[in-house]
Known about the structure:
Layout lengths: L13 H28 L30 H19 L3 H22 L10 H18 L2 H14 L15 H17 L10
Amino acid sequence: MAYGANLPVPAASRGERVKGAAVLMGSLLLLLWLLEAVDAASGHALDTFGITPREVGELRDIVPAAFVHFGFGHLMANSVPLLLLGFLAAVSGIRRFLAVVTVIILVSGAGVWLTAPGHSVTAGASGVVFGLFGYLLIRGFVDRRAGDVIVGLIVGAVYGSILWGVLPTTTGVSWQGHLFGLLAGVAAAFAFRRRRGAGGA
Length: 201
């Protein structure tokens, strides 16, 4: 009998990855809508988890701010792109997706904390949306995978107009969160590049 042998772990099938990504994103959207329902029922008590810039105590709100929205209209605007872009990113590997989103939330939130106008409060998942857009846009080129390049080109064609959101053109919209989210997504594509021949995680 041989001891210490390593048995190969089969990669998840495409169907399992699709199912896992769908369940993950469906659960995330459900959580966001439940949180907004609690926020509305509590007189918007959760809005305090938004980020007020350059106050040290607000650094703890960088993560929860990504899950809080200022009303159902705000949440609705983020829900569809978050669901679609998140699914496309997660279907290639849940662990990689979670790592990418963590980087996006932290960088986007830190960027808002550093650069947003004083006395403003910023919250919402739009930084994650812009980050996933940037990530998907270049992931295929970084990983040198033709299928992901095609996905990136489709994402660029469908959602490319959101890039206007990184410019300070609309009052009340956090272009800072959008810009830093986009940059974080691009950086994450390089930081978590997949080795040639590696399977989904």
